[in-house]
Amino acid sequence: MSIYDLDIAALDGSSFDLSALEGQEVLVVNVASKCGLTPQYTGLEELQKRYAGQGFTVLGVPCNQFGAQEPGSPEEIQTFCSTTYGVTFPMTEKVDVNGDGRHPLYQLLTATPDAEGQAGDIQWNFEKFLVSPAGEIVNRFRPLVEPAADEVIEAIEAHLP
Hints:
- By secondary structure, the protein is an alpha+beta fold.
- It has a single domain (about 5-160), classed as Glutaredoxin.
- The protein is built from four helices and six strands.
- The longest helix is centred in the first third of the chain and has 12 residues, at about 40-50.
- It is globular and about 35 Å long.
């Protein structure tokens, strides 16, 4: 199974067809608007602008499970992201990434180990998963790894279509 086989809604509630991303490299990130790591939106948008023309996209997945740091409505989240950080990459509905209500996307993603070999639950907001154009989850970066970190850039550049 790949992420392209799963259903998720867009932030505005409309259907979001993950299969439309097939053939692109995707950086899936659980995001939050009121977190100490929220400034990572700047780096994520820079990645989007730098690599979008090469078959890459960031996919933001809002989550309110960590300190209730994404309490807003879809409209509030969209407005915050676009006006504060100029976000242009796609955003999904707000989902649970851990626990009994974990979205199927995160059931798939969390099976992937990080650089230290640790798989399992998401640790905090802004955990990142790199998905190859073929749909394979190729890297997992923990929340404190900045979007512009060398290991993230090298991984992106190694898997561009």
